[in-house]
Sequence to fold (245 residues):
Amino acid sequence: MASEKPLVLITGGSGYLGQFLVQALAKANFQVDLVSGEGLQQCINELAPLVGVINTAAMSSPGACEKDSDTAREEEAGNPVNVYGKTKLEAEQVIQERWPNHVILRSSIIYGPQSPTPVARPLFLQFVARQLAEGTPTSFFNDEFRNPVFVDDIVRVVLKLLEPGTALSGRVYNMGGPERLSRVDMAVKVAEAWGYSPNAIISAPSSSVNRGVASPADISMTSQKLEQELDLTLTTFSDALAEIG
Fold:
């Protein structure tokens, strides 16, 4: 007899990452408004006892956070340079203080296939593919570095953490992909993997655009601790592109 999936509460289930986690773990679907709190208590009552709570709810746009700093501070050691980063750090500190049985996953740019239901914010990978397919000259930053992480890898990590016998709590892990890449690096790899001409790719410094919000130049990270302690290997950007097709 196959074992049942663990019973968990996923917040932010309509967002990009949340949709993939719901798809992997879904048993029931409750609609909850985290801003007003409507439906939350009923959801918790219906699902109790819970194996875990996975929080993916967030204001994911740094610009929106900068304009509305109070909304960005959800009830939930870094050096953030904008409201987006500061509120993420504040959330970590609240979780560490209130709930000792926690695991915090620090992700980088999350990419993957289109989500089952389109999300409001533009997705970087799909934006790159569209610009290249249309041959539209587009500037990509060459001096900001991230570790883009495949959405399927995040789902694998979460499922691993939910397995019975995974005695990990009170931990903070980096959960970026295995490569340090600039946005122009990513665009070039998309062109190579999916057969687009790279001629539309314009390499430009981040200073060429006024985004109205400070952005850190280098938030690359090593995720070796996560890989070692969970006994898994994170997917390279090129391998993920080949899998997405």
User: Anything to note?
Assistant: The two ends are 35 Å apart (CA to CA).
